[in-house]
What we know:
There is one protein chain. By secondary structure, this protein is an all-beta fold. It is built from no helices and 12 strands. The strands form 4 sheets. Strands 1-8-6-3 form a 4-stranded antiparallel beta sheet, with no helix packed on it. Strands 5-4-2-7 form a 4-stranded antiparallel beta sheet, with no helix packed on it. A two-stranded antiparallel ribbon has the order 9-12. The protein is elongated. The chain starts with a strand and ends in an 8-residue tail after the last strand.
Amino acid sequence: xxxxxxxxxxxxxxxxxxxxxxxxxxxxxxxxxxxxxxxxxxxxxxxxxxxxxxxxxxxxxxxxxxxxxxxxxxxxxxxxxxxxxxxxxxxxxxxxxxxxxxxxxxxxx
Length: 109
């Protein structure tokens, strides 16, 4: 089951946060509690952590973007899961949905 990574509200009056940098790239494996991105508010710079083990997919906010609180900025999926989402908007209409198979990562030690 995919888990949305949402820009959190860090203060009562916060409306947006700025993505300073992604610490993980799309397709990278992530562990619960691992930092995914650094965000900046008007009062602080903080890291957003992964809420589950999986693979970081569907990054929707680029470094430097101001993002509204509560907006989905990425997704964490389980390896082997098929993710279905609408394609990019072109001239105001969505292109056909895209299905992506999240690769299974095998750690070699």
